[in-house]
Amino acid sequence: MTEKFIKNDLLSDGxxxxxxxxxxxxxxxxxxxxxxxxxxFGTKYGSIDTCFKLKNEKDFTCVPEGIAHFLEHKxxxxxxxxxxxxxxxxxxxxNAFTSFDRTCYIFSxxxxxxxxxxxxxxxxxxxxxxxxxxxxxxxxxxxxxxxYQDDPDWQTLFNLLRxxxxxxxxxxxxxxxxxxxxxxxxxxxxxxxxxxxxLSNMALAVAGNVSKDEVLKIADRVLPKEEKVEFxxxxxxxxxxxxxxxxxEKLGVDVTxxxxxxxxxxxxxxxxxxxxxxVNLALxxxxxxxxxxxxxxxxxxxxxxxxxxxxxxxxxFAVPIFTGESNDPKKVRDEIIGEIKRLRKEGxxxxxFETVRKRLYGLEVLGFNETENLANALVDSYFNGFGLFDTxxxxxxxxxxxxxxxxxxxxxxxxCCLSVVK
Length: 422
Prior knowledge:
Blueprint: E1 2-8, E2 13-19, E3 25-30, E4 37-43, E5 51-54, E6 61-62, H1 67-75, H2 83-90, E7 93-98, E8 103-109, H3 113-124, H4 131-149, H5 152-164, H6 178-181, H7 186-196, E9 202-208, H8 212-222, E10 231-233, E11 246-249, E12 257-262, H9 273-287, H10 292-299, E13 308-314, E14 317-325, H11 329-346, H12 350-366, H13 371-383, H14 390-397, H15 400-410, E15 416-421
Parallel strand pairs: 3-9, 11-15
Antiparallel strand pairs: 1-2, 2-3, 4-8, 4-9, 5-6, 5-10, 7-8, 12-14, 12-15, 13-14
């Protein structure tokens, strides 16, 4: 086992990075002045991982859409008790989520941390699936899928992704479809589990009123040493253009919702820390909360305060997105594209750049005060191949010229889609 302490002098903060004997990467950020703790145990396995093979296998295995999310649900069950019942006895608040490229199991607590961490590590590493419990879960997740089909925000996003991507599995709902989950069985679940839930493909992050030694004591006792499982995943090669530049659906909403996304075409599957910072700054300068365009559209009643921006990115996909509510989404799109063209032609003013840079830098620093944000950021940065403090340092050194170049390369008005739910 090896460990190192990584410190940021500006923030006067740091964390331990440990290569545990089991094969697991462990991160611990000690906050003795806090009253509680937050833990996240995650694997680099999400809804897009539907086609893979082990190193010694000749052919790829393709599994039903939604199986990663299905597996997340099933891991909470055991032959005796489910994990939620065990957490209830310690007073911890537990949950889990599946995203496009990862699955994470979490808990927060103000006491009984050691017991709660033991439960977390134990149940995630002890799968229990039978055909009977799988069939029961198919009904439960089927209801969840139908619920999301009536969720306007969810449909706005996925209609956008289907409008942008023709082949990338990010266009498929994380939970899959009624038809796809009907194909899931216990054998397929064990196959996915044994491939992706190997400790060398996972990470544990803990932040709060805990000590490194406390975390390692539990890990040493609970986690077995595992041989690294090597596998290969397929991300289909994507077409250059969007599927459509406009998509519309009608649902029971009071105000029309929209999402405007710009398709990026890059060979590398992951974005660098500088790209993440640059695109977020560009989004803020184009139409962020302190931008002239945001204020103008708000005053005209074209948007309301639900308007926001996001750099939607993960393994093999990246889309800068503007979202909100409007009675005229097409006009919002035209205003945003007009501002992008103006910024390309005239450049960014020094004042606008500094205003947005300082605001986003401040929000980044504030995130280090919340244990949930810290644990999530530790896992996220590790899975993306960089360090926790890398983006903070980039906010200090990035230039206006960097953002002007980003607006030229990441916001192609001829390669965007507007998704509308009326």
